Amino acid sequence: MNIDIFLDRNILETTSRSMSKPLQVKTLESSDYARWDAFVGQCLEATFFHHAGWKEVIEQAFGHRTYYLYAEASGRIVGILPLVHVNSLFFGNALTSTPFCVYGGVAAYTDDARRMLDEAARNLAQRLRVDYLELRNLTPHDPPWPSSDLYVTFRKEVHPDPEANMRDIPRKQRAMVRKGMQAGLSSVVDPDIDRFFEVYAESVRNLGTPVFPRKYFALLKQQFGEHCELLTITREDRAVAGVLSFYFRDQVLPYYGGSTREGHALRGANDFMYWELMRRACERGYRVFDYGRSKRGTGCYDFKKNWGFEPDPLHYEYHLVKAKEVPNNKNPLNPRYRMLVGTWRYLPLPVSRVLGPFISKDLG
Q1: Backbone phi and psi for residue 160, each to the nearest 5 degrees, phi listed first
Q2: 14-35 burial by CB neighbour count: b if 16+ within 10 A, else e?
Q3: What is the pLDDT of residues 192-220, one digit of tens each?
Q4: Distance of alpha carbon 286 from alpha carbon 324, whole angstroms
């Protein structure tokens, strides 16, 4: 039996025996962060994006109101639901678990805790008069809510042997990794965000996406410490690509990455970067490479498939409050979204860095 499954089942049985008092839903306070994160570490439904540190990051970087709810029985946390209210003129008024994160929703030991947290979230959404409540679930509700199939995730187990992982990369993409090696690229873990941010700001501008504020990345590094790593790819001491990754349990999650025009022109810098991350992670004992979410029909989606990863659907589900249908405002085929992308990529880089944070704080 998988030891993690045994551990989760053992916790569930212990929790059921100890629930002498009725369930209560409470709002997270700073004094309970340690208890909340202890639950995240034990509950298999919880992800890196359920950590309490995201509450601090989102509040301080973007100024959004957070509502981190937890179900408690006999003084013990048995379920959690992090929620953030983002009210945007351009992207709508939503209560989400969790914006700026790819996974979210309820993580709980019991069905009763899950139902109570769902009900509390719906009531909060009604009270805030949002357009909709969005839960970014890895598995569907039971019964399911209205959903969107726009996003998928790419996850794959990796070998402890780097050479076995290299052989698993499809031939054409493997050739791109080797092209990066032949171009004289090297990798280094940076202690701070400076070089990463320079690369990332240029990369997202070139793709037509507003950049997040520098403060956001600094807060991620501050909050998550050694679990947040900055891998920089250099050529002759010049940073040409970089990726910010999270480490959680036995998983590595490359989360924000990009390359400069020089790196893009090398046609292999990004492949070399992700290979170096995979190689380093498997040598340190990590077993799962989580390439993260992508929108269907995009270049990012195709890139990950070309690495031999298969897409798994993400169950982004909605409780509609004022909205009449599932939101479509972030779909790349949406004309307003495409217009923003088409305009943004031609902005001067300094201008994009000044204006970007005013828009990106509501992208979520």
Answers
A1: -70, -15
A2: ebeeebeeebebeebeeebbeb
A3: 999 999 999 999 888 888 899 999 999 99
A4: 44
